[in-house]
Predict the 3D structure of the following.
Amino acid sequence: MDRSSSPDGQNIEAELIRMLAQQGRLTLVPLAIALCMIATFAADSLPQWIWGGWIALAMLLLVVRTQVFMRLPSYPSLSDQKKLHLATWVSVCNGVVHGMPLLAFNYFSELERAVVTMILMGTSSITVATTAGYKPIILAYTLPTLGLAAVVWGMHGWQPVYDWPSISGALLIICYLPLLIKLAGNGFSIFERSYRERLAQSAVNVQLQSVLEQAESASSAKTRFLASASHDLRQPIHALSLFGTALSKRPLDDEARDIVGHMETALGALASQLDSLLDISKLDAGVVTTNRQTFNLLDMAERLQIEFSPAAEEKGLSIWLDCYVDVFVDTDEILFERILRNLLSNAIKYTKEGKIMLSINAEEEVVTVSVVDSGRGIPKAEQQRVFEEFYQLENPERDRRKGLGLGLAIVKRLVKLLNIQFSLYSVPNDGTRVSLTLPISAAAPQVPQLKPKVISSWDNLRILVVDDEMEVGLGMQALLETFGATVDIADSTASALKAALTEKPDILLADFRLRGEDNGIETVRNLRAIYPKLPAILISGDTAPDRLREANEAGIKLLHKPVAAPVLEDAIAVACNLAVTE
């Protein structure tokens, strides 16, 4: 092999050796059949011990060749170059033995000579095909076979008188031999080029894998950053929300109550945007569980039309409902409604004039729910990007009233979770249609039987709040005391244990992430070791997917900061069988 033909000569040799090992077993049967045919001709013309000894030797060497070729990669003591030298010498031995019948040329009939020669030409072609055209092996086999065939045909043609058919046969072999060697060279060039292309493709794959790992690392870093930023933002917002709600429950004059109302509205808008980050984290963490149930799409559509109409009318838009019959489907009602809410909200944000239509079209076994707007539409090049996190069209100034650009990203994840067919069709300056297709349910929804709630007084309720942020603890205390409860505050698992041993709590509200290695799950476990049936709720500002999975696996109810007062009140009431205050 010409090592200078490639800077990767050694690697090409190793690849050639692997190829020879793979192809070695393929030549055994066809070559054995060819040799048996030659032996059949020799049996008619030569003594049995001659042709029998020849076929036995030829078969032995053929098996040796096959075994050597197959085991070439497993000879650790030999270099690749020496392995190829070994393969070449084995081919020389096979070529010499396979060409031996030509020495009995004069004992064969004209037809047998021609057939034997054709068989040797065929075995030479097989050698070219199964060795990738590696010239040393090709020459090692073809020179003792076809080279000898050309000699004996030529000698037969010249003695004792000119025999033009024999001379023509010799010339034919002489022409065929260099052609075969040329084809072998072309075959090896193809093999070498293919190997280089595989090397290049492998290098590209390595680069792609590196880029993919970098992208995954960047995505993971982004997730950690968002989770950390979300946690740090939620803490003061949660405290402010608690104090604001506690303040609103005290006697205030009209002007002060109006200020508190505006403050709560601003906090609610900020909490809504943070909740969008939380939704993304929950979906990516795989902790969102589906609760399939049968419900009426028409009821949901009418409710959403009424709810979103005021926001649409503020922009001079109208919401039309195109559905007049009951249509029942079986999926998660809350998550499906979240999808429609995000689509309607998005349609209102990006439509300046005209209307938004919510249509429900039932056909045989499926129903298609579509949200159609008359906005400016989405350019084709942007139609996949609008489902990316934080990507927004026509909002370069990052207007907070248009959200964070997470609505469609949440929709994309939810339709995948619910296994709903989803399609988007949009034409610039002609609006957008987003369609959801799902099976129709043959069964009507069942009316749930509501269990009466045990009514007890909040005045006898002792709540232990564990949070390492003093302002949050004080805010929880200020709010919960307005309900009539008694509130103890702790900032760690150790201080919570001390407080719980002094006064048994009726319920534990623990922050998920405390100082150092301490966390709310450990607090719950330690207190339940003393009071096994103690109700507990985790409250967290952490939205990292791994944290969400950890809380979900613990089986403890988790609320996320900032927690709205009604949500917190209802969660405590459910856990302790209390009545929610009116």
